[in-house]
Structures are given as structure tokens and as C-alpha cells.
Amino acid sequence: MRKEDLGRIIEEKRDCFIAVDRKVWEYAETAFVEFKSADALCEALEAEGFAVERPVAGLETAFCGSWGQGSPVIAFLGEYDALSGLSQRDGATVKDPLVPGGNGHGCGHNNLGAGALAAAVAFRDYLKASGKSGTVRYYGCPGEEGGSGKAFMARAGIFDDVDAALTWHPGSVNAVFPFSSLANFQVAYRFRGVSAHAAACPHLGRSALDAVELMNIGVNYLREHVIPEARMHYAITDSGGFSPNVVQPKAEVLYLLRAPRTPQVQEIYERVNDIARGAALMTGTELETVFIKACANVVQNSVLEEVLYRNFTELGVPAYSEEDREFARKIFEGIAPSERSQDLDQYSAPGGKAGKEAARRLRERPLADEVLPYGQSEFVLPGSTDVGDVSWNVPTGQVWVATWPNHTPGHSWQITSSGGVSLSHKGMLHAGKVLAAAAADLLDDPPLIERAKEELRLRLDGDSYRCAIPDNVHPKPLNSGR
Ligand SMILES: [Zn+2]
């Protein structure tokens, strides 16, 4: 089989991949409760003759589909979790929730999981036809949003024997991902006080809500004295009740702490813990600290990035129809200049002068329909992904493929809308082709994998992966009353 046949295999099975994509879009299940979505992907893998193991790493919605034997072990990473509050009718170009307040695929993970599936199936055919030794794996990775499922999976060592991992993320651009990302910890601080009538006997009360407020003030003063790349955000997840005439006996605030490297997050975490203890002391309340999850920064791998880029430029971008362009134009025109995402500028920067020129060409187009020039980058994106935990263990390469219109903001109803229409299905199938073609190169040119591993060793510079999530912490669904 020739590498060029990979695209044909994916096109022949396009209805199957789109059907899985569509099911996951409709189920719209959030972190760690993606039971039906995982079923849909597992059933498709089994129908293709993959051996499916589920659960893995103790996560009920995590799984691993495997085909072949021996090395190299080439893995594709799939995600399929949705976001709360982003329900939206597919193809609508104005905000129109299917279920008011319901979940929606506002980050395109329905496309992500199905595109990685297409890559695994096509590459499996290529591996089979080659007669060579090798294993293809599809890792079903749940709870990327707020859950860091891959970090729990990496903690269990399930990526240890993988030689190279490839993945993608739906986006507004077509580009290789050459960046690092922020490591993070997510921690809940729970305060317990004493209730009392807030007018008649406030002196008998000890307010947990006061503790939350004082803690937040303390952290807001801390901001000036941490490294500028750090981020500290919080949500008050329990304000203690709805009655102002009751001193609140319980309250909880959820923190997300981020910095370029895990030891930096650890240091900030310890200072935030001191502030929380101080708030408890000031208010006479008790404090319970609940570690929820953590993820590592992404370790870039330029060897894999170059393989992905070569294949991406050879394949170009999907052939969009007039209908796709019309949909994109309507969404694009609805985004005010002040609401435009900066993705294009950010992602074109590594391409240097050529990147700048591409960004200038694409800026006013509803679809970013070119592959952005690639360049290595040491830039740390001010966001996080649990792909970071995989990348500390295994050389990992990623691309973005456009599945929504140019300048669409992240985690938005526009993304949910795009995720249900042909534009994103084309991007999903295309991502499968790029990843499968890159995997074929890794199979046919084994020194590439050795060079990718050597780069990982050099980048880690003697350091090794230690999952930041304590052993006694297990994943919990969001909104589960943790
Ligand atoms: Zn995402």
C-alpha cells in the first residue's frame, strides 16, 4: 500500500467516522461521565478488529484500542468530553441552545475523538499491508476539560511502552502545534464555620464565606509577587446558602493555579495554602484542602512536528464547499472585532516572516484555509492541556486542523454549532489523514522515532515525569459534589 492510499481509506469509511462524530456531538457528555461517547468509539474500534481494553487506569470512560504486535508502538490520542452550558443547535449562526443551560461540544472534542479514530483505522490498514512489526493504539482519553484524564492515565503508566504519540485539536487554523503550555493544579478550599442569626447573634457565628472572601483577597495581593507567566483563577463553588440573615457555616472556592513548570505551580500552591490557612485563622473557621487534579506542561518535539508539517503541507487543506464557506462567513461576520480570538496571530508567529504574511492574507477570511508556515518555538501558550503529561513520557506531536471559522473564540456556542456541520467533519477527516500519513513515515523510517526520543531526553535534561496528582486522589466528575 502506498502512503497516498491512506486518504482513500478514510474517504471510503467517511460515513462511519462522521456517524461516530455525530453521536458524540449529540451525547455531549462532560468529564468522566462520557459513557455513551466512549461506547460509540469502542464499538467502532471493535468493528475494525481492534482489541479494546476498558476501563484503563481505573477510569471507567477511558479505554485503549490496540491492533498488531511488537514495536514500534504508535499511539493516537482521542478526546470526547463536552462542556457545560454550551448547548447549541448545529449549523445555527446565532446563539440558539438546543437545551437551555445544557452541555455542548464547545471545544470540538467530538471531532477530535473521531479524527483520531480515522487515523488509527487508516494507519492500521497501512501497517497490515506493510507486513512489518508494529502496534497501533487508540487511547480514549476522557475528562480533558477540567479533569486532566491523561494525567491520571500517565500516573498509572499506561503510556510507558509507547514509542510515539500523535494527536490533534480542532481549531480555527491549520497548523502544527510547536508550543509548550502551562502546568496546572486544581484545588478546592472548603471552609467550615458556625451558623447563627446574622442580626440577633452574629457574635456566635463564624463565617465560612468570610474565609473564602479573605482568602481571595490574599491571593489577589499575591498576584504581584509571583512570576508573570503564572495564572491564578478561582470560582466560588459554594457560597454557603441564599440567606443573608444566616452566618454561612460552609463555603468552598475552587482554584486553578498555573505556571510554565510543575515545580513553579507547586511553589505557588504552597503560598496559596498559607493564605487559606490565614483566612481560616482570621475567621475562626476550619479548612479542608481537596486536591482535584494537575497536569504537566507540553514538551515539544520538533522531530515529530517536522514530520507532521511535511505531511500537512503535502495534503493541504480540505476542499470546502460553498455551503461550508457560507456558514463560515455568517459566523465570522457575527464576531465583533473586539471578540475575535488571537489564535491566528499567535499560531502564525513561529513561522517568522512567512507566518506573518500568511496571517496578513488570512486575517479577513472567514476560513483560515492555508497551512500556516511552521517554525520551532519556545513560546508557552497561556493555557493548559493534559497532552502535557503524555509528552513527558513519550515523544508527542500535535496539529490543529480548522473545524470552525477564523477568529472564533474558544469554548463558545459557535464551536458547538460548527461541530455538527460538514465544515468540521471535513476538518476531522483531514486530521485523520495528516496523522495517519505521519505515522506511516514513522513506521517506514525508524531512525525518526529514535531522533524523537533523543530530543525528548535532551529537553528533559535529566528530569523525569512525576505526576503531580497525589496517589490517593482519583478522578471525579465535575459537579459531582466532590
Ligand atoms: Zn479542547
From TrEMBL:
One of its GO terms (biological process) is folic acid catabolic process. SUPFAM superfamilies: Bacterial exopeptidase dimerisation domain, Zn-dependent exopeptidases. Transmembrane segments: none annotated. InterPro entries: Amidohydrolase (IPR017439), Aminobenzoyl-glu_utiliz_pB (IPR017145), Bact_exopeptidase_dim_dom (IPR036264), Peptidase_M20 (IPR002933), Peptidase_M20/M20A_hydrolases (IPR052030). One of its GO terms (cellular component) is cytoplasm. Residues 341-360 are annotated as: Disordered. GO terms for molecular function: dipeptidase activity; para-aminobenzoyl-glutamate hydrolase activity. Pfam families: Peptidase_M20. It comes from the Bacteria. NCBIfam families: amidohydrolases (TIGR01891). This is Aminobenzoyl-glutamate utilization protein B. The lineage of its organism: Bacteria, Thermotogati, Synergistota, Synergistia, Synergistales.
